[in-house]
Amino acid sequence: MPESTVTTGYGNRVIYFAIIISLAFLFLIINLVRKRQLSERFALAWLAIPLLLLIFSSNRSLLEWMAEIVGIYYAPAIMIPIMFGLFILVSLYFSVKVSNAERRIKDLAQELALLRYTVEKNKS
């Protein structure tokens, strides 16, 4: 892959921008956990995104290796599908969590209805 100074300059800007954004996102998540607006359990899933982005954006050779495998000429562009995949994985994780919570709420509502029925039946 021949690199010109223009391509390298833009590539470095993209990488520096990705590092700044991932650090800002990391500090946002930590701040939300600290203020108790986000539970630690869910924060672990969200922390994976900026940490992986930091790893990919700070290691140019890893980025270029992955871009070469996928067939992308401009190495920083590989970060877009990486981020898309990470967000899909986090969304899938939260979908599973919501589905489990929904099932538990339904079970609790049915149990509460049975208990109310039993209490009303014993009153009579």
Strand and helix map with partners:
Elements (H helix, E strand, L loop, with lengths): L4 H30 L5 H19 L1 H11 L8 H45 L1
Quick structural summary:
By secondary structure, this protein is an all-alpha fold.
How would you explain this protein's 3D organization?
The structure is a single chain. This protein is mainly alpha-helical and 124 residues long. The chain has one domain (5-93). The protein has four helices and no strands. It has helices at residues 5-34, 40-58, 60-70, 79-123. The longest helix is centred in the last third of the chain and has 45 residues, at 79-123.
Main sheet record = none
Number of helices: 4
Q: N- to C-terminal separation?
A: 84 Å
**Coarse morphology:** elongated
State mean pLDDT (0 to 100 scale).
85
**Whole-number tally of structural domains:** 1
Give the helix/strand class: mainly alpha
Low-confidence stretches: none
**Strand content bin:** under 5%
Key words describing this protein structure:
mainly alpha, 124 residues
